[in-house]
Amino acid sequence: MTTAVAPMILDTFSARVYMIGALPDADGDVLLVDTSGTVVKVSLEQHDTILQPGLEPAGEARLERQGNAIVARGMIYDTPRGRALRQKLREAGDRQEWSIGFFPLETRKPTAAELAKWPDARRIIERMDLREISPVRAGACGPHCRTLPGKSRGGAVEVKVEVKCGACARLVSPTARAIAECEARNAAVFGSISARAAAECEARSAELKADVPPGVIEVPVFRSNASRDVLERGLEAAARDLKLDGELRVRFFAKDGRRLGFFHGGWPDTVWLSADLETWQALEVLGHELKHLQGHQRGSRASEPEARAYGAKLARSDQRFWPSSVEECWYDKHGARLL
Predict the structure, then answer these.
(1) What pLDDT does 95 receive?
(2) In degrees rounded to 5, what are phi and psi of residue 126?
């Protein structure tokens, strides 16, 4: 009897693979199916494991829902095809588009009301058997379905958000590595804190304090991974919209009762947000502070009304157009959002 051995995991990735109830894709399909929790194969390219069933997958992915998007949390196998996939994602970065391989189980034609909402819709898919996801040269979902920014499992690959103006936008936590190092050293002595470990942690703390504005206590995390993903996409969209240059970062500070966020000229590539904000509020503060950062880059100064207006614009924008642009949401006469 032969027992199959599961492949070792080489690396990880995240990708937005389709949108639920969004505008029709290039094939005229509107997907109303939530496949979160499904585990699927990952092809190397152009749905090759579907088109050539004998090929081994390059990895696997578990799907999860974030808003109206289905996001794949992928694991790349340590195999020749897996290594080729890892190299492909490394080279393409966030430009890599993704597509899904599925069998439709329940479809119908759009109703009159749906055609009024989606004039280009040809088919409504209500049930499907989703088997596979694949990087493609051009997917039916377009640039909305692409590799998402984030660091790889092993730290060797980093997919950054490259924007057309040459800026790179990402959420970072410069304290996380130092904290992890201290915790690892303490754990190495079975929970007891040696004098040497304590001194090292204290030294790291001093380094961190020197890298923050006066009176700021930096914290390494935001509310949740889902909120971080929204902020990353919002940061990228705003960086494009405001034509910002350089490597942009968001860092978080402990609630101090005085402010929700700020921009400081001593950290010209960084905006600071309070770590306890709700996601919608964090987006508004992010847009507000990025407007101030834009003024700093241009040698001018954005007024508070201008900064407040842009913060509101970003927070209320239609996320389906991110990261390409920051677009206003449209509503009907009853106040319902128009898709």
Answers:
(1) 84
(2) -105, -25
